[in-house]
């Protein structure tokens, strides 16, 4: 898989290039700012972009705003935000533009390199990878509809938004598969979301809920 990396820290950028290369990715460009990121994406059309939120010149929100531009101009290119911060406003915008091929991971909470690489592969393949802290902060913004859900249904929704399958939720909550199916069905009903035949739509519906 071909990657364009945007990270302004020289040392971190070099480290990520090495990790990605050793993990089987091809880093076709590694740039220090949002302007060069957009140019690199136009030139290389990668499978996935890895971008920090805060980049030069102001170190505020240039990176994630560039991610929004990429999703609008190149909707088939996956985007994984890798940052120290949860930029709630833009994270919500990013998730509401297109929910497949999206990741938002927090640097300080990546415990294993293998977990990061697996999450990036999932995003590049059209899946979703969200840090639980990102999900939690976005759910706080949507607190009123959440009152319809029981505490257990909220747990299931959080895990769904992280990109977990029914099997993953079963393992995380130590409940039966049938119980998870019931919780998922209740969530869709209480959030006025139409039924679907595809598993991936569960995650898309949750992210649509978070982003609307």
Automatic annotation (TrEMBL):
InterPro entries: CheY-like_superfamily, NreC/VraR/RcsB-like_REC, Sig_transdc_resp-reg_C-effctor, Sig_transdc_resp-reg_receiver, Tscrpt_reg_LuxR_C, WalR-like. The modification 4-aspartylphosphate is found at residue 52. SMART domains: HTH_LUXR, REC. CDD domains: LuxR_C_like, REC_NarL-like. This is Response regulator transcription factor. The keyword Transmembrane does not apply. One of its GO terms (molecular function) is DNA binding. PROSITE patterns: HTH_LUXR_2, RESPONSE_REGULATORY. GO terms for biological process: phosphorelay signal transduction system; regulation of DNA-templated transcription. Pfam families: GerE, Response_reg. Keywords: DNA-binding, Phosphoprotein, Transcription, Transcription regulation. Residues 2-122 form the Response regulatory domain. Residues 142-212 form the HTH luxR-type domain.
């Amino acid at each position: 898989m071909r990657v364009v990396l945007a990270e302004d820290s020289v040392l971190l950028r070099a480290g990520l290039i090495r990790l990605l290369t050793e993990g089987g990715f091809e880093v076709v460009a590694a740039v220090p700012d949002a302007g060069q990121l957009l140019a690199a994406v136009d030139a290389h059309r990668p499978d996935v972009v890895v971008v920090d939120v805060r980049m030069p010149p102001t170190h505020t929100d240039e990176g994630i705003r560039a991610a929004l531009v990429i999703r609008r101009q190149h909707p088939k290119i996956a985007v994984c935000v890798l940052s120290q911060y949860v930029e709630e406003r833009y994270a919500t915008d990013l998730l509401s533009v297109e929910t497949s091929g999206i990741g938002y991971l927090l640097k300080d909470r990546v415990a294993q390199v293998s977990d990061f690489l697996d999450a990036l592969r999932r995003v590049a393949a059209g899946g979703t990878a969200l840090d639980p802290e990102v999900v939690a902060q976005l759910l706080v913004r949507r607190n009123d509809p959440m009152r319809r859900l029981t505490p257990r249904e909220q747990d299931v929704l959080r895990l769904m938004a992280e990109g977990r399958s029914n099997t993953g939720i079963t393992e995380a909550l130590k409940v039966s598969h049938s119980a998870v199916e019931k919780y998922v069905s209740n969530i869709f009903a209480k959030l006025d979301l139409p039924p679907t035949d595809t598993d991936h739509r569960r995650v898309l519906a949750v992210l649509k809920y978070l982003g609307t």
